Amino acid sequence: MFNKENAIDSSKLHVDSFKYQSTEDMPNEIYEEWQEKHMNAKIFSLQFRNIGQSAEWQEMIIIWADKL
Q: Would you list the DSSP string of the chain?
């Protein structure tokens, strides 16, 4: 059910995506660097997915907005 009081204006959402090799890079280091630059961000979704059949590459996706 739609609740106007809790609705989020999608024009204020941002999506950042980071690709990394699962054998070399650590996603927590990438995330910590991102967090330092976006101290006031409200994160709505943090997702990880494999890229390709070998899963050698992975992607971290952050959906966020400035503090509302």
A: ---GGG---GGGEEEEEEEEETTT--HHHHHHHHHHH-TTEEEEEEEEEEESSS--EEEEEEEEEE--
Q: How far is CA 25 from CA 34, 39, 61, 64, in A?
A: 14, 23, 15, 23
Between CA 36 and CA 52, with CA 43 as vertex, the angle to 5 degrees is 90
**Residue 4: its pLDDT value, please?**
77
In this predicted model, what pLDDT tens digit does every residue of 19-62 receive, in sequence order?
Answer: 988 766 678 888 899 999 999 999 999 998 988 777 788 899 99
**CA angle, residues 24, 39, 9, in degrees to nearest 5:** 105
Output the six-digit token pair for 24: 């070399």
